[in-house]
Amino acid sequence: MHRNVSLVTDALRDGGADPARIARMRVLPDAVATAAAAAEALGVQVGQIANSLVFEAVREGRDGDPLLVLTSGAHRVDTGKVAALLGVERVRRASPELVRSATGQVIGGVAPVGHPAPLRTLVDRALAAYDEVWAAGGIPHAVFPTTFAELVAVTGGEPADVA
């Protein structure tokens, strides 16, 4: 098992995720770096894919702080709306280098958990419309099932309207 997948599995267990769902972690034969690819590979709706997107929350006169937004694959994050919600100057996509340093994972495989340190996290309320959602498992080939409530709990995230 890839080290990142083990870190994610351990973080899920430590965060109180359902052991039956953790056991359903899957390593797919092909990378699923987009919500559409993941949905197709899993046979689910694209809205059931919980994209883990890293942004920089920029305050005036300071470097940006990493921000993890878990959003439904059915829509895009409205960075202006998220900036207003957080009370920051702006929110912008993080560079691949920042994503890697903040999460220990690469774009396309960023998991909601398993990072070197906790990240401020917003969890898209649109994910609550589904009984089960799927998230990346730390590498572009790994995915696991979860729920909106479980994502909020294991990440310490804040439910938010992000689109």
Structure in a nutshell:
The protein is α/β, with parallel strands linked by helices and 163 residues long. The protein has one domain: YbaK protein (Alpha-Beta Complex), CATH 3.90.960.10. It is built from six helices and eight strands, in the order H-H-E-H-E-E-H-E-H-E-E-E-H-E.
What does this structure look like?
The protein is an alpha/beta fold and 163 residues long. It is 29% helix and 25% strand. It contains 6 helices and 8 strands, in the order ααβαββαβαβββαβ. Strand 6 and strand 7 (142-146) form a beta hairpin. The longest helix is centred in the N-terminal third of the chain and has 12 residues, at 3-14. The protein is globular and about 45 Å long.
Strand segment tally? 8
Question: How many domains would you count in the coordinates?
Answer: 1
The CATH topology assignment is YbaK protein
Bin the strand percentage.
25-35%
Poorly predicted tracts of residues = none
Layout of SSEs?
Elements: H1 3-14, H2 19-22, E1 26-27, H3 35-42, E2 49-58, E3 65-72, H4 79-86, E4 90-93, H5 96-103, E5 120-124, E6 133-136, E7 142-146, H6 148-155, E8 158-160
Parallel strand pairs: 2-6, 3-5, 5-8
Antiparallel strand pairs: 1-7, 2-3, 2-4, 6-7
Quickly list its features.
YbaK protein; 163 residues; alpha/beta; 25% strand
